Amino acid sequence: MDTALAQAFEKTWPAADHADAGGFRVGRGLGAGGRVSSARAMGAWSPDDFAGVEAIHRGWGQQPMFRVPDSDTALADALAAAGYRRDSPTAIMQAPVAALTGDPIPPVTTFAVWPPLAIQRDIWSAGNINPARQAVMDRVAGPKTAILGRMDDRAAGAAFAAIHGDVVMVHAVEILPAFRRRGMAGWMVRQAAIWAAGQGAIRIGLAVSRDNAGAWATWNRLGFTEVAGYAYYARSS
Asked: Which residues contact 153 (CB under 8 A, 6 or more apart)?
């Protein structure tokens, strides 16, 4: 993953705070999930640094956890030897913004609004995007918006998009069960691209679980390609 995309990935879904231990930076997530509550390598590290990372996590009431790029096999092997298990393999995908702005979106299907409407927060909460995760959105300093999707005259989905540099990242895509497999996520991501184009972004990125076959199919149809991957490593016991 290139530097611009990596920075956008971090800046558009930020931790509440950070602390360093040896070659690692630990995120304080305040209950907002692994991406903002994990440790990641920032420079030269040693397995001796793991204890310092764990102490920071425990001081913040978090499970000790590392976020490891697929390319960093040395760290993955060291964590496995220290009793950590690999979990939640995830891919980062990207596409040109211009590739998603050509097809007109059906009328009253999507809207870009900020701050989020109450119905968007309800849709997120109905999934796994609880108030702590929604608070991450509020922390983003740059341009940002909430995408509302509508279908059958009802609110059907919500997503969050934010820009850092010339990259827009889409997070927290949630579609209500009754409206899944009907193209709603695709229209919402196209709306995010249209909004981002107006802000000068030229690339759009997102993260997707490697276990989510439906999401993979959607993003592939839209022209997204995988550019990097990572997984979490947490204690086995």
From this structure: none
